[in-house]
Structure formats: C-alpha cells, structure tokens
Prior knowledge:
The protein has 455 residues and is of the alpha+beta class. Helices cover 27% and strands 17% of the residues.
Amino acid sequence: MRRRPGGTGCDWGSRTRSRPVTSVRGGWRRSARGTSPTCSTPTRRPGAFSATSDWSTRRRCGSAAWVRTSTCSWTPTTAGCTAGIATTRREDCCMADALRIVITRRDVEEWFGSDEVVRYDLPAIAHEPTRRFLAEVGLPRRAALIGFAPDAEPAPGRDGRIVLGAYGSLRTADQAVLLDGATGRVYAEERYGDPALMSVDVSTLVRNCALAEAIRPGRGPVRTAEELIDLLGETEPELNPGHSFWHTSFALWQLRRAALPGEGLAVRITPAMLDLVYENEFSGYDERQLPAAITHEPTRRFLLDVGLIDAWAYLDMRSDGKPLPTLAELAAERRADWDDEPEPPADAEHLVVLGYVSEDGDLLVDGRTGVVRRWNTGGDEPFLDTLDTDLSTLAFTMWVIGRMHRQGERFGIGIHDVWESIAVDLLSSVDPLAWAEPGSYWEEMILDGINGLGP
C-alpha cells in the first residue's frame, strides 16, 4: 500500500457564488450598491426562494426595519411596509409588531407548499401575536427535521410550556420543541441538560425552518455557514451558539453539497476532498495488491486512484503491502491456527478483505458488485451484513463525520441530539442501503458514540 502525500482541496462547507444585487421579496427591494432600500410592490415569481436575502430580515413594518444590502452588511432603514406583498392585508403585516420579523401566509405557502402548512387555533396561548401567527400564518407539517403538531394545552412537567412538535430523524430519539405561551419564545429539549432557546418567536422559527429546507437537500442556492450564522447573530442575538439548534443546523447541513454523483460509484470522492480531514491517513493501492476477484472496475479504479482511509479506531485497513486476500483465503489461514474459526459464507472467494472493523469483524468488498460488507464473528453466530453501497459511500461517511467534528470546533456548536439527527439524515439520504435495517453498523456507531463517532 503506498502512502499518498498530503494536498489541498476546496472547502465544500464554504463555497459561495455571487448573487444578483437587485431582487424583490415581500415588499423590500434589495438595491444596487450605494442606493437605499425602498418599499415596493413585489414582482416575485411563484415558488421563488432566496435563502438569506431581504425577506429573511424584514422587521416590524411602520418602524425601523433591517435590510440586507448588496455588500452583505446590515443597515437600518425607517421605510415603512406600505405596499407589502400583493395578497397581504396591512393588518396582517402589522400583526408582527411584537414578533421579530414579518412573515405572511403567502410566504409560508411558497416556502413549504400550501398543502404542507397547517394553521392552529390555540386559545391556551396567552401571547397574542403568537396565537394570531399560528391561526393566520401557520406552521409547516415538517421542516428542518421538526415535525409540528401543537398540543392544545401546556404539557405537564414542562414549566407550563406547550409542545409544538418534536425533532429527530430515522431512528434517533425525538426531542420536544416547546412554546412558552406567555412570552412566545421557543425552546428545544436536549437529552443532556435543560431545554435551550431555539427561536425568539414563531416568526424566526418558521424563517429558520425555510432556510434549513433550502440548504438541507444540497440543491438550493449556495449559502455558507458563516453567512447563515451571521444572520442568526443579527436577527436573534439571544441565541447561545453552543446550545443553538439553528447554529448547529446551519454549520452542518452545508456538507450535503459534497455528495455529487460519481462515475460508476454512488458519490464522487477525490484525494483532495479526503485530505481536508484525513491528511496522510488514506492510501492508494498498487495494481499487484488487488486480487483478480475484484472484477468490478469502478471499485478497482477507486482503490488505485483514491484508496482507503485508515481510521484505526474503528476501521483498521490492511497496510502490510501484501496482496489483499479473499475471505476464503483468510479463513483457511485462520483455521490452520485456531480450531474455533467459523466456516466462511458460501461466496467467500468473491469477498476481498480490506481490513478490520471494530466489534469483531472483517471489512470486505464484494469484488463482483462493489458492495461493502462485514463478516462479523464476534457473537455466538457469525453473520454477513452490509455496511455501505460501495467504497465511495464508505469514504463519504467517514469524511462527513470528520468534517462535522471540525465544523463543531470551528463554530463552537454542541447540541448532541441535533448533531446526531443531522448526521443520520444526511448519511442515510446519500446511502440508504447502509441504513435500511435497524441496528446497522453505522447507526450503532454514531448513535452510541462508539470510538468518537458521536458529537
């Protein structure tokens, strides 16, 4: 196995591109540099969405408002919201005087789809602007991993707060989202510690949900984590980044953009990309090290051009420079030394041993298909299970985990439950085969935090 020299690559979490300097959203015109924002009748196309432009910072019509300029600074203006959105009544707009930003019924229907927005009549909420917002504007059914289903009355044992819904993904443990009916503030429960402030009110809650949905699939406008976190600092300075649902979300969802389709494999992986996290810790192979059993050409090419990450804590790759053995060959060697070595599976001659998996197992690749498997001999009965669709999704999983740790250190984020939920949602969307069965290898490793794979 030859060692690949370190290199540099683009930072997938910080790519950006320039945007038009003039756009209209919700009555605020984003003007060219050097001009002042004006209030005008919007000319938005149906379904248009700009993740951090003017609409996201409109504040309190009829009084001071925050408008984002083309130079990415935040400047106050006293222009009132006189025209507003074409379908917005003035009383609807001014309803938000006690909320942080102006959001209308039309906004939420465009962001989430009219069929995905639900309105609620909740007399138990004492905070009148919040009660009106929920009744007239509404909440999405599900967004940013939050499923909204408000209770009619305060929940027992939660300091009189009302359950708005819960957040989580796949098989993670759901945590409640709570509304303080007296103040309108929104809190997120955590597995460890007291509920943390999630949003200053329902207007920023819905705005942040829309932002997360725009970046979560990795297909919307390019928005850097810095840009979105700066937005939180300007519009919700009360949030503590170390215990903020949205700081964690905006710092981590950007990684989804790296999952570009590969040629013959699920994801495009390059040495420069891996070098961002695993400098000098991944290796390519020589042709003489690859056995004839690897007939899947994209897999052979990946092993030669990129190689494998040697993360010794949970995946210990073979690095002795010898040809990779098949499981049939390795099992025969072991049986010569150990009487209790189990019989290998029937197709062991097609399974090539790449290394060792923690929890007593061999890391394998099916030489015919490229599927990554594990031969687990640690229990009472040996079994063969699937780890990843192919070597590219194995590398992507390890890359994402490493990058999430670095983003956490960079931005000082640390909500355990949010970290887990995003990791599971992101990785399962890229490699559903690896997460198809409950108790899969990566699920146990990440949700249990084994070998440092948790937050």
